[in-house]
């Protein structure tokens, strides 16, 4: 497997770590759970993500998408490939003030999104306790809510659509 990982590493624009230290750093989230991943990928492009999906499918392993790692129930730990999109997929791509929606990448931090939206009289309602670190991709994966979810709803109530890459690429 190490040879296959080396080949994968040379084909990516982003980073691929299979050293003990980096894997140990990603073996936990904000929960009490710990599980050593096979490797840690920090993709730089959609092409990198497609390559990781193909690699996982061909090598019968799992992908564990991850942003900030603030999950409290171990959702972003596992023995597959951690795919950290929180470093390079951090852009607010489009704002439609008239229709009151915004298009973002998964690594956008919830509080930073709301700072961007505030001058336009808008905000993203789900308010996790970790809103200063929680990223939209993780909030979608967890269907995050918060103290005022009865008023503002949970994440899925505030989501119009998701562009995703499935396991077949």
What does this protein look like?
The protein is 28% helix and 14% strand. With 169 residues, the chain is an alpha/beta fold. The chain is built from 6 helices and 6 strands. Strand 5 and strand 6 (101-104) form a beta hairpin. The strands form 2 sheets. A 4-stranded mixed sheet has the order 1-2-4-3, covered by helices on one side. A two-stranded antiparallel ribbon has the order 5-6. The radius of gyration is 17 Å and the shape is globular. The mean pLDDT is 92.
Order of helices and strands: HEHEHEEEEHHH
Shape: globular
Main sheet properties:
4 strands, mixed
> Termini separation (Å)?
22 Å
List the uncertain runs. none
The total of beta strands comes to 6
Q: Beta fraction of the residues?
A: 5-15%
C-alpha Rg, in Å? 17 Å
Strand order of the largest sheet: 1-2-4-3
Distinct helical segment count: 6
Average pLDDT, rounded to a whole number, is: 92
Q: In percent, how helical is the residue content?
A: 25-40%
Write the layout of secondary structure elements.
Layout lengths: L1 H10 L3 E3 L2 H6 L13 E4 L3 H13 L4 E4 L14 E4 L7 E5 L4 E4 L5 H8 L18 H7 L6 H4 L17
Parallel strand pairs: 2-4, 3-4
Antiparallel strand pairs: 1-2, 5-6
Give descriptors for this structure:
two-stranded antiparallel sheet; 4-stranded mixed beta sheet; 169 residues; 6 helices; alpha/beta; 14% strand
């Amino acid at each position: 497997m190490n040879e296959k990982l080396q080949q994968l590493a040379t084909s990516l624009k982003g980073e691929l770590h299979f050293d003990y230290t980096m894997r140990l750093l990603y073996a936990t989230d904000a929960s009490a759970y710990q599980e050593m991943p096979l490797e840690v990928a920090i993709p730089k492009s959609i092409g990198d993500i497609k390559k990781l999906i193909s690699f996982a499918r061909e090598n019968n392993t799992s992908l564990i998408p991850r942003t900030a790692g603030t999950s409290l129930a171990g959702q972003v730990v596992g023995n597959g490939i951690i795919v950290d999109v929180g470093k390079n997929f951090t852009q607010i791509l489009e704002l439609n003030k008239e229709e009151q929606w915004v298009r973002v990448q998964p690594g956008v931090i919830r509080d930073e999104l709301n700072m961007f939206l505030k001058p336009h009289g808008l905000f993203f309602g789900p308010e996790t306790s970790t809103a200063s670190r929680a990223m939209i991709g993780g909030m979608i994966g967890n269907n995050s809510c918060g103290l005022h979810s009865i008023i503002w709803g949970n994440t899925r109530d505030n989501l119009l659509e998701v562009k995703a890459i499935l396991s077949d690429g």
